[in-house]
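Observation: inputs received (chain + S-adenosylmethionine).
Thought: call the complex predictor directly.
Action: predict_structure
Action Input:
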Amino acid sequence: MKDLNKVLSEKEYLEDLGRISKEKKIPVINYEVGRFIEAIVFVKKPKNILEIGCGEGYSSYFLVKNLKEAAFTGIDLNNERLCKAKKFINLNFPKINANFYHGNALKLIPELKLKFDLVFIDAAKYEYPDYIDVIMEKLNDEALIIADNIFYGEKIFARYIKNHDKNSVKGIKRFMKLIQNKEIFDTKFIDIGDGISLSIYRSKTK
Ligand SMILES: C[S@@+](CC[C@H](N)C(=O)[O-])C[C@H]1O[C@@H](n2cnc3c(N)ncnc32)[C@H](O)[C@@H]1O
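Observation:
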């Protein structure tokens, strides 16, 4: 019962945070997507997690919640958001080994010494295929890649795309093609939130 009460008060806390962020026009993952990620981490037990586009740390919360002796790396281009993410995660999970890097993920990732078991992608949609390029050398076998906003507000299915969405839609479509290469990935698209993709990396087939 105590645990159930904890779940309910946490739900209120997280849903409030998500709502406040959206009101402030700060994009965050959908609450259910967060819970999905949290469950995946619990089952997969990754040793190293990378988040591309951690923003103010809302999604990072779900990624690190079930980590014990593992490490989390969060990257964001926006330093103000990144500093908030660092504070938020350190406050909620003081014992977690979490590292936050400010900068362009496309430049920072090739410099990282670590290999990852789980990568969560939630940065610029037009760059999604480029993130795949840079993480390929950084994946352990059977690593999971989860990407958010795969349906991009259903625009991915639309015939007419407004000019300012064209690059993002093009990026997501190219990304989808890459992760559907069956020789390298085993991929499922999941209809929660704005759509997510879940891919398992198979290095042994290379
Ligand atoms: C959708 S928001 C992330 C929201 C966050 N995952 C959450 O749910 O709380 C996208 C973030 O990606 C960052 N971003 C965009 N392009 C990036 C890049 N090339 N490298 C690192 N971060 C990037 C933006 O600064 C922004 O904070």
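Thought: report the result.
Final Answer: Helices lie at 2-23, 31-44, 58-64, 79-92, 105-108, 128-135, 166-179. The mean pLDDT is 95.
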